[in-house]
Amino acid sequence: QVQLVESGGDSAQAGGSLRLSCAVSGYTYNSACMGWFRQVPGKEREGVALINTYGGTWYGDSVKGRFTVSQDNAKNNLYLQMNSLKPEDTAMYYCAAEMHGYCSLDASFFNFWGQGTQVTVSS
Prior knowledge:
Strand content: over 45%
Distance between the termini: 40 Å
Largest sheet: 7 strands, mixed
């Protein structure tokens, strides 16, 4: 059973930094994609950053140059380093994984989700 558990959500000032972590267990797919999405009430879930088995990365336009996604070699942990935070980054952040090796910022392609961690950025 795949389990994803996020941590690291917090409140921060605009311009500051936060690092989110996602502990991954039970995930045995060799060719796959994992990443981060975010959602605010009343809006669709937005793709933030993805990374595949080969280290390829994808970013949403609103976070390019500010956020960095990474994973450890064993793929037991996924990270999101968030720099130069803006108030519009405020959202619930979710860790997600899929099992077919297809990286897309479209949330519908992802099979497994964590419970989310809240990030709040004040101006």
